[in-house]
Specification:
160 residues, 5 strands, single chain
């Protein structure tokens, strides 16, 4: 399925400082180690491509602009790209092992409260939205209805 994309974060002078591969609203995720610029300094390089194509394009673009950390260019990327765990399938055995390792652990009241607070304040939770004159229960629903990516809906909503 062609639902991936590659993107660039741009400096104020419009030169790229980070190249990435994503799906959905990843490009706008604030929980990243790299500083996310304002929406007007984010560009999509390729859209509606397979994950394999996105990985290859990410590697190519990072090679083209080079990495600061190894002295080959201008990007803040810390790898050559092409890696990641998107779509990772967890086996039932692995799920069972995780469950067993958590059994019997006592969680403090403070820990449970902090977890609940994080869940309540999670900005990635589904939110109703009004997109192109129609109401939806989530950005995903709007994206499916109009045949666009969730990131396109998110970007539109941030600009309006």
């Amino acid at each position: 399925m062609n639902e991936y994309y590659t993107y660039a974060y741009l400096r104020e002078d419009r030169t790229p400082y980070y190249i990435g591969k994503g799906k959905g609203s990843r490009v706008y995720d604030k929980r990243r180690s790299i500083n996310k610029p304002s929406a007007d300094r984010i560009i999509f390089l390729k859209n509606n491509i397979t994950e394999e194509e996105a990985f290859k394009h990410e590697v190519y673009m990072i090679f083209l602009f080079g990495r600061k950390d190894i002295g080959t260019g201008i990007l803040q990327n810390r790898t050559d790209g092409g890696e990641g765990t998107s779509g990772r399938k967890v086996t039932e055995e692995h799920k069972k092992n995780i469950s067993l390792s958590n059994k019997g652990k006592k969680r403090t009241e403070t820990f449970r409260k902090e977890c609940a607070d994080r869940a309540r304040n999670n900005t990635n939770r589904r939110k109703k939205c009004h997109y192109r004159g129609k109401d939806f229960n989530s950005m995903t629903e709007a994206a499916k209805y109009f045949g666009v990516t969730v990131s396109a809906v998110s970007h539109y909503l941030k600009l309006n």
